[in-house]
């Protein structure tokens, strides 16, 4: 489960990682001085898409972004800074131990960066003072103790896949601040963190998700139907980006979270949703899709059949979503689009 930036920063504050002063809002607000208005979406590359803006007119900037369909914003003080770095903790696949990843370059795609330092920090010992010294020496900056300890603690305590600060900034007055957050929690461990999910207003998504190498997202209900949808995409010349079975009885929130999960994959260019509704209500599916479309700005092609299908189709059509009766036509249109 991916967390929104403001959710990740709320966890940062719990473990002593400093972040800029800010507020979360769904409506335009008055703000004195220069600020950064950050659209709260689960997709990446917000800056490149003009969805993060430095401004002295917060009120009208939010109005402009709302016209683009953004519904929630994090407004933060503008922080002048001298340098940007990268810092994260993730799982090292070879050792199955937490790994601290650092770079002297901030605001970058770490997979493309050449200047990267990786440090395995085993669970049995945790972060030690010499780890911090080594990290500070590499980055050429002091005062990283709380940052590194905090990243590691969040990774371990919340069963995270990734806890990332990009960029980590050295301010003009010598402070170190996390200007952004990226936190991904392991879906299979969410049952251990029900209190956190309740606090965030999020729901555990119980599904079977497998990420692949293609660019067409696939969502179905039932493993057989989902696999058949993937096969049809391949037969029509497309490449599936994933397998995601939402299961039977998926409700509005479950569908929304599933679409957000698939749509947040940067490789996904469009999404195919194939639902045969028995105990799954098509109107609930449609409402979940519409909720997700407020954040995922990618073409979605939907085939609905079953309980309340006419109401579901009506909801989708009224919101400009491609909805089909014929699954072959849906997949053909998706592949060719």
**Count, helices:** 10
Q: How big is the Rg?
A: 21 Å
Q: Please indicate the count of domains.
A: 3
Q: What is the CATH class name of the largest domain?
A: Alpha Beta
What is the approximate shape?
Answer: globular
- Helix and strand string, N-terminal first? HEEEHEEEEHHEEEHEEHEHEHEHEH
Strand tally is 16
The chain-level structural class is alpha+beta
Task: Indicate the percent of residues in helices.
Answer: 25-40%
Q: Can you tell me the CATH architecture of the largest domain? A: 3-Layer(aba) Sandwich
Task: Give unreliable regions as ranges.
Answer: none
Mean pLDDT: 91
Your description of this structure?
GO terms for molecular function: ATP binding; metal ion binding; succinate-CoA ligase (ADP-forming) activity. With 337 residues, the protein is α+β, with helices and mostly antiparallel strands. It folds into 3 domains: 21-77, ATP-grasp fold, A domain (Dna Ligase, domain 1, 2-Layer Sandwich); 81-187, 2-Layer Sandwich (D-amino Acid Aminotransferase, Chain A, domain 1); 208-336, Rossmann fold (3-Layer(aba) Sandwich), CATH 3.40.50.261. 32% of the residues lie in helices and 27% in strands. The protein has 10 helices and 16 strands. The chain has helices at 5-14, 58-66, 129-139, 145-157, 194-200, 223-235, 252-263, 282-293, 309-318, 327-336; strands at residues 22-25, 35-39, 52-55, 73-77, 81-92, 97-103, 116-120, 160-171, 176-178, 182-185, 208-211, 216-220, 242-245, 270-277, 300-306, 322-324. Strands 5, 6, 7, 8, 9 and 10 form a 6-stranded antiparallel beta sheet that branches. Helix 7 (252-263) packs across helix 8 (282-293) and helix 8 runs parallel beside helix 9. The longest helix has 13 residues, at 145-157. The chain is globular and about 60 Å long. The two termini are 29 Å apart. The model has no long low-confidence stretch (mean pLDDT 91).
């Amino acid at each position: 489960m991916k967390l929104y930036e403001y959710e990740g920063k709320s966890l940062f504050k719990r473990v002593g990682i400093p972040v800029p002063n800010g507020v979360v809002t769904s409506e335009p607000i008055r703000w004195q001085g220069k600020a950064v208005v950050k659209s709260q979406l689960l997709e990446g590359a917000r800056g490149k898409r003009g969805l993060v803006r430095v401004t002295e007119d917060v009120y009208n900037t939010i109005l402009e972004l709302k016209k683009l369909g953004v519904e929630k914003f994090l407004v933060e003080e503008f922080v002048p800074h001298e340098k940007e770095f990268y810092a994260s903790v993730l799982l090292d696949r070879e050792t199955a131990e937490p790994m601290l990843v650092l770079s002297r370059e901030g605001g970058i795609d770490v997979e493309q960066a050449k200047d990267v330092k990786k440090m395995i920090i085993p669970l049995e010992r945790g972060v030690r003072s010499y780890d911090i010294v080594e990290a500070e020496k590499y980055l050429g900056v002091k005062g990283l103790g709380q940052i590194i300890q905090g990243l590691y603690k969040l990774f371990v305590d919340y069963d995270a896949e990734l806890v990332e600060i990009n960029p980590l900034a050295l301010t003009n007055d010598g402070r170190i601040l996390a200007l952004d957050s990226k936190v991904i929690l392991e879906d299979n461990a969410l049952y251990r963190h029900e209190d956190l999910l309740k606090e965030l207003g999020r729901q555990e998504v119980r599904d079977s998700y497998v990420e692949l190498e293609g660019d067409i997202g696939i969502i179905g209900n039932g493993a057989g139907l989902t696999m058949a949808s993937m096969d049809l995409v391949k037969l029509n010349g497309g490449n599936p980006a994933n397998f995601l079975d939402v299961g039977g009885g998926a409700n509005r929130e479950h569908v929304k979270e599933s679409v957000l999960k698939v749509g947040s994959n940067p490789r996904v260019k469009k999404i195919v949703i194939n639902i045969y509704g028995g105990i799954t209500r098509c109107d609930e599916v449609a409402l979940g899709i519409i909720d997700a479309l407020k954040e995922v700005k990618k073409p979605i092609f939907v085939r609905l059949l079953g309980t309340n299908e006419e109401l579901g189709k009506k909801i989708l059509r009224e919101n400009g979503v491609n909805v089909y009766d014929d699954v072959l036509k849906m997949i053909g249109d998706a592949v060719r689009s």
